[in-house]
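All the exercises in this workshop are built on plain-text protein records. There is nothing in a record beyond a sequence line and a structure line. A learned vocabulary of local backbone shapes supplies the integers on the structure line. The question running through the whole workshop is how a given chain folds. Here is such a record, shown just as it appears in the course material:

***
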Amino acid sequence: MARTAAALAAAAALALLTSACTGSAGAGADDDPNAPVTLTFWHGWSAPNEVKAVDAAVERFEDAHPNITVKAVPNITDDKIQQALRAGGSGAPDVVSSFTTDNVGKFCSSGAFADLKPFIAASGIDLEKTFAKPRLDYTQFEGKRCALPLLGDAYGLYYNKDAFAQAGIKAPPRTWSEFDEAAEKLTKEKGDSYERLGFMPNFHGYETTPGHLVAQWSPAYFDRDGKSNIAKDPAFAAMFTWQKRLIDRLGGFRKLERYRGTFGDEWGAKHPFHTGQVAMQLDGEWRLGMTADAKVPFEVGVAPLPVPDDQAADYGKGYLSGTILGIASTSRKQNAAWELVKYLTTDTDAVVGFANELRNVPSTHDALASPELRLDPRFKTFLDIARHPRSNTTPASVNGGAYQVTLQEFGYLYESGREKDLKAGLERTARQIDTDIEKAG
């Protein structure tokens, strides 16, 4: 499951990680994977049901590899991963998972994660036949593959079917113009606030971020020379223009911000979609389970997020992200560690079982097609988004996801009216991104 705010913060923090992490796969890959060994596996899941699911997956691995014992350590942040891999020693993990795909560029370029290419080649795994292209994209950087996808996330549209029926809307919107009309119809104003808002377009609206939205325009963040492309690719200007226009149509930034202040926690039962405060919500597949847990008093619908009107043929695509898995370059047990990584990421039964328990999108083609998936029937929408050939993700960068933080900061300025010149603002933001990447490199 993605944690957007935490992920962006971690991505920015990881930009401080230097090339002090200079381990290599060969340095610790001479261990005997058949010898009795104990691996330390760090992961970020923390909720009791999540930890239980990870432990169950580990137990299945240990049953298949009786010589390997795995010590799974939950609730590990990327900050702690950085510190441990810099320091090395007995306290460092052997296998590491992270929710923050943005940090893969730093994990790979710094050498914090071992190069997996030798292990993949020896195992005979055909990556393109195993994983979708976006998942392969966010687990490598500049040709170095230091991670593999564990479970995936796909972002789509949640909508309140009861509210849709009341507003006379018969189907979820497929284009942004249809979405805007629906958002207005679903909005019920109440004085200087709202009884119900069709959609919260402000960028602080939880998963409503520039990166998640602009994916529907299929953007190119960087050019062939690695320079920021946000001022040149019209996708970015189109997304910001659409978002600002919708803000104005729904009452203006300040009115929306006051209403946003009444929202409950993103991960709790008082999420504004759960409570009926908003009728449509951009979110990941995990929200289905959360709406069930919260016992929402209306019928929940799911659909792909709309696309620009001139890209209507691409409807069904969406933003993809997920959890990554890698081997610490400081580990002296890398061959044994690879057995765990290979099992969790490529064994179909393992991936399907883990997806069922965590209610996330399976990461392999075979697992996506497995009849053993025991998920809410509506979950198929997210499986289809994950399989869509035009679905995409944000590219890795040497400074992690700091470039996305910079873009989001510009978004805050533009949506609030503090930045009025979109073209000049994007050009200035692109220069800042290039400067930051040059410093990090």
